[in-house]
Amino acid sequence: MTQVPSKKANLVVRSRADAPYLKKAALVIEQAAWSKLGYLSYSRSHYDYYAELIDSYPEYQLCLVDTETDYPVAVANSVPFVCSGPHELPAEGWDWVVETAARSKDQKPNMIGGLAVSVPAIHRSKGYARIMIQSLVNLAKSKGLEGVVVPVRPTAKAQHPWVPIADYVSWTDDSGRPYDPWLRSHVSVGGKLVGPCERSMVVREPVAFWESWSNERFESSGNYAIEGALAPVEIDLDSQSGTYEEPNVWVWYAVERD
Question: If DSSP states are collapsed to H, E and C, what string results for the chain?
Answer without folding.
Answer: CEECCHHHCCEEEEECCCCCCHHHHHHHHHHHHHHHHHHHHHCHHHHHHHHHHHHHCHHHEEEEEECCCCEEEEEEEEEEECCCCHHHCCCECHHHHHHHHHHCCCCCCCEEEEEEEECCHHHCCCCHHHHHHHHHHHHHHHCCCCEEEEEECCHHHHHCCCCCHHHHHHCECCCCCECCHHHHHHHHCCCEEEEEEEEEEEEEEEHHHHHHHHCCCCCCCEEECCCCCCCCEEEECCCCEEEEEEEEEEEEEECCCC
